Each structure stands twice: as C-alpha cells, then as structure tokens.
Amino acid sequence: MALLQIAEPGESSAPHQHRLAVGIDLGTTNSLVATVRSGLAVVLSDELGRPLLPSVVRYMPDGQTEVGYDAQTRQALDPRNTIVSVKRFMGRGLADISNREGMPYRFDDAPGMLRLHTVAGLKSPVEVSAEILRNLRLRAEASLGGALLGAVITVPAYFDDAQRQATKDAARLAGLPVLRLLNEPTAAAIAYGLDNAAEGVYAVYDLGGGTFDISILRLSRGIFEVLATGGDSALGGDDFDHRIFCWILETAGLKPLSVEDARVLLTRAREAKEYLTFHGVAPISARLDSGEIVDLTLSTEIFSEITQTLVAKTMQPVKKALRDAGLSVADVKGVVMVGGATRMPQVQRAVGDFFRQDPLNNLDPDKVVAIGAAKQANLLAGNGAAGDDWLLLDVIPLSLGIETMGGLVEKIIPRNATIPTARAQEFTTFRDGQTALAVHVVQGERELVGDCRSLARFELRGIPPMVAGAARVRVTFQVDADGLLAVTAREKTSGVEASIVVKPSYGLSDDEIAEMLKDSLQHVRDDALQRALREAQIDAERLLEAVRAALVGDGELLSADERARIDADIGKLQAATRGDNRRQIVLAMDDLEADTKDFAARRMDKSIRRAFAGRRISELDSDTTIAHTGEAT
Amino acid sequence: MDFNADHFTLFDLPIAFRLDSAQLDRRYLEMQSRVHPDRFASAGEAERRLSLQWATRVNEAYQTLKRPLLRAMYLLQLAAHDVAIDNNAVMPAEFLVEQMEWREAVGEARAAGEHHELERLHHRLQRDLRDRYEAVAVLLDDRRDLEGAADHVRRLMFLEKLLTEIDDAMAACEE
Q1: For residues B11 and B61, what is the distance between their CA atoms, to the nearest angstrom?
Q2: B20 lies in which domain range?
Q3: Of B37, B62, B63, the CB nearest to A481
Q4: ipTM
C-alpha cells in the first residue's frame, strides 16, 4: 500500500531557495567547516586549499589576531600570547585544569570560568573560541557567497552544561546563529550511518585532541537513537603529547625549561606521536635556548608503554556506557573510530581487543564529525530532499540534581535521559514565616555536592509568610535539544504565583557578551550595525518563509479575520525587510509572531492528529502480523 | 490531540498494564518524528516553543510507560489511588527481614568481589520481579484490585532499587 505523503510542519511544501547552512567541528587541535552542496557534504578549504584550521589564536599588541596556521607557526616565538587547545578551558575554572605547569599562559581565576592574560588584555576562552568560529564563518561566507542562515556546532558528548553554554556563547560572539549543538559522536554516526546504510547497534569511539567520548547508538530506518554516552572531557591526544614530553625531560635529564623551550619540545613530542603512526621509531631532536641539545629516539614499544594508562583510562567509560545501554560487547555490530588520536596503533589495538572486532576506519577521522554536522545543518535548515530524512534522538550525558540537606545531591534528571526532557520538583519551607528558598543546581554522578559541578545558585524570594511546610514551590528543570538547562521556579499558594527563569550562572552574562562584542568589533572591519541589520533581515526572511509555507499547507485553519491580520503583518514585515531600519524589522517580526501564535498551536495539533491517521496505514503496511489491541475502536 | 491527555491516549494505546511494547516503541518514534525540535529548527519562535513542549511531553510519556514499575504507579495515579509510600511506609516485618538478607548477601558478594554470586542474585531477583509484575497485571487489568496492586508496587519499589544496587556492585567488580 502506498503511503500518503504529508509535509511536515515547518517544512515548506512550496519550492524555496537553498538556505546556506554549515556544520562546524570546533576541535581542540583543529577545526573544520563543511556544507552540503548539490546533495554532497564537503569540507570547505581555505584559499590555499587547506581543509583544517588549527585551533590556535595569537593575540597581538594592537588587538589584532592571527588564527590558524599563521598563529601555529609563531607559537614557539610568542607562546604566552598564542593560545592552543582553548577548548580545554571552555566553561572551566582554574582548578579544573591539569598539566598547568606545562603551559606557557598566565591565568586569571575569574569566577565561573578562567581568563588568560594576553598582550591584548584579559581574554575569556569564549572570546578565543569566537575568533576561531569567526574565521570559519568568513571562510564559509566567502565560499558560499552569502550570509549563513545558521550552523550546527559540534561539542563532545560528555561536555557538561557549562561547556555547552560557553560554546553557544562563543558562536554568538562570532556572529554565527546556532541551529543546534550536536554531540560529536552522534555527528560521526550520522555521517557513517547515512553513507553505509547501517542498521543495528554501533559504538562510536571518539578520541580527539583534548576530549574523549563514547556513544552507543541504535540505527534503524532513518532513526539515530543514542542509547548511552560517556567519556572524559579532559582526556585526548594532548595527553599523549604530554607523556612524550615528560619522557623527553626525564630521558634527556633536562633542567626546568623556559616557556619557549617547553613549547618547542611539546611540538616535537606531537610530531613524534604522528610519525609513530606509520613508523617503528621516531627521532626527536631540538636545540634549546639554554644551549642544550636533545637527540633521542622513541620506539612504538616505549610509546605504548608510557601511554598505557591513558588508553586504559578510555576503556572505563566504554564499559560504563555499554552497561547503561543494557548491552554487552556481543550486541555491538560495529565500532566507528573518530578523532585524529584514534590513528595511534595502540588505541586501535585496545579498541579491537575490547570489542573483539576490527574497528571501522573507512571515514577520515579528522573530517567525519564536520561532515555529519553539515548533513544535520542541511536537514535543520529545511534543505533536505523529500524522502532523504532522518530523526536524531540524543541524550543528556550527566545527571542533573539539586543540593539537599547535608550537602547531598538529589538527582532530578538521570544521565542518558532522552532530550528534550523536563522534570518538576516541589519544595517547601522548613521554618515558620520563611520567605525565601535557596536552590543549588549541580551536574554529575557523585553523591556529594562538592564532587559535582555547580551550575547555578538562585534564591526564590517573596514567598508569603506561612507555617513551615505550607508553601509549595514548584521548580521545573527543562533540558532542550541542545542539552542546555533552563530552570523555572513557581510559588503557588493562596493565589500567589511567581515565576523566574534562571540561566545558569557559571558562564557569561548577557552584559558581558555585549561588552565583548563591542570590544571585538573595534578590531574587525565589518560594521557592527550593518551586520546586525543583515542578521535581522535573515531572521525576517526565515520567519516569512516559514509562515508562507504554513499558509500554503494549513491556511484553512484560520478565520478570514485572522488571515487578514497575518497578511497585513506579512506586508509590513516585507516592507521593513527592504528598508535599513533594524528596529522596524524586529517590531514587525514581533507582530507577525504574536498573530501566528494560535495558528502554530492549531498546526501542531493537526500534525499530531495526522500521526494517528497515518500510523494506522503504515502499521498495516509494515507488519500485519502484530495484533492491534487498540485498533478495533 | 489534547496536550494534557493521559500517556496511553497520547500513544493511542488502551489504558492497561499489559502493553505491546513494540507498538509503544513504534508510536513513540512516529510521534517524535512529528514534534521533535529538529523539525522546527528554522521555524518561528512560537512553533519552536510548542515543539519543545511536545517533544518533552512525548519523552516523559514514553519513559513512564516503558518501565513496568512507573507504568503501574501511573495507572494507580490515574485511578486516583494513593500508593502512599511516604506516609504509609510500614511494610510487613517479614518483607523487611527478607530485604535485609538480600542486602547482606549483595554486600558480602561485593566485598569479596564475587562476580558470579552477584550474577546469581541478579537472576534470582529478576525472576522474582517478573512474577510480581505478572501479579500486578492480573490485579490491575483483570481484577481491578487497586489496593492489592498498590501493595505489590510498594514492594517492587524496594526490589527495583535492590536490582540497581546489584548492578552497581557488578560494575564495581569489573573495574
């Protein structure tokens, strides 16, 4: 039986122009931008044809920056002002950073997130990441010939809320609308699954420059369902470099090094690691500023030995994720290898031994995440061809909880819950006449508050004085499809209802971001106002197109009056979009949004009714053998 | 479709403890492929908010119906029958003694690192759970004996927690 074709809500049934959307892999070591062109996902190269952008940013005294290869070649000369592996600092305080002694930077321990002293002033990791994203945005705009509708930016699956929020803030700072934050292993699974028409349970082992993720997914008929995820957001190829670096110091008997010498040796260590992927031994030689000469040979055997604990460290989260998914090694059909660090032979061997099968390496481990992100961006932008459609169900990597009496954590949302998800919890006062409640939100698996990451603290004030235990405060934790948390609190007694929305407090406030935007724009040639206007125009066009598509598909849901009002709003917004008054565009958009609110609800309702109507047909079609207990009515 | 409809109606399933889980899975995915925020990433603000609410609602309903204990508790809640775990937590003495014995056995096996013994306990407990859920199905679906079902549910809450503890102990042995 043929299935009825029904256009999805939000998806235009009328032909529309191709919207420019990209996928960005914001990596610890390298970053990439990719897009889908004529149905094919391609990585966009720079003007010299290089696909990778080293994630390196160098600050100069005049406030200008160098990003990528230029910055990388100068890092040994100017290590203090050349920031590498900034991803490790995203959403992190100073105390979270290991191996600090090997780093040439001067840190500042700001509340929530550390800062870096540079010749151009104090910089947040968010600002440094924004430089990388801005560079990729400009590359994409030049290559695609227009402003971007938006980007899918990948993050390690094991990134917590603070790290995700920091990434989103960086995109905002770079003038890049975020369509979605996508987990890196999930992006790889999309790229792999779509290319190989894979079905069944797959593991994605993703060892990047500074992060490690393991995800267990079930792929079936266009659905990517993440069953469990785990990892270590501070473990990656950098740590292997650091082990070699320590081995050099020890073997060559070197005295404490200058920051320049340390940087040189770290670079030699990385080169040796890469060399060992294809050779049995790697020569390491360097002439240091101190006059000493390093001349060593590192064999694969010694390299394996000194990094054994690191490789073993990745296997714990693998076991845990399998257990969380309720599966064993035998259930896993394939293991997809992602991230440059999986090129190391000892990693390949360990993964193969554990899963008792050869890992899958048929996609370029450096590009697969960006390719998957580009495909997802294309889908989210509404460019997907009919029938070329998939659904992604991802999870939250770490449990969310609140502090209770005695510094203990009460879990509110468990790890590996499918997102979006929400949970409400009721609280009450414990003293007579108490008018405020303090709520402390944390993330992590440990039982003690001190062992988890603190996400937000807030106080709910203005509770009417009552006897202890009489107040009813309902706190709702909502995790959206980006894996980001929003907390709403509501006090509902004797008609008093107060509601607040709390954005977790670790990150940057909106004011701070506005300030950084202003600062960064002073050094960037493109005009801030011009850019804001262009963004508003893109937003307006996006909205206009969505509403037009809705009117074509479901116009009959509106009364003549409602339709006339919406048509008038459309006319006004179109006129505003042609002008250069940003404020007018925003106001016209607000009007159209307000007047289409009920329409949106009716359309959603209709779509869900169709799910019922459509499902009877598809069920009868696909498996007639199953008894339909509920179908007889 | 009413956003506030019960979980069973949401998936067009009969309100009962016995459930065709393959059908639940299929309807969940169909529903989610209609309402998921990825379908509305380039839509207007109002539609994106609605989509978030619906997708959250669908996930919550699925998680509740998928797990037998939560499903039973939800059915009792729909029937306005209080499981009364907080204020009526007085369990029969012999059940509590049994619980202590279980916990001692798990604790000893964990301390001794006896993975095999833990697995044995795990299997025994799972068999026990299966029988009890079958009893809950009879009480809820066939006899409409809510108090009888609630009594089983209270015990099952202890037993499911015990099962998690055995899982944790096995995990600790493997590490």
Answers
A1: 9
A2: 7-66
A3: B37
A4: 0.89
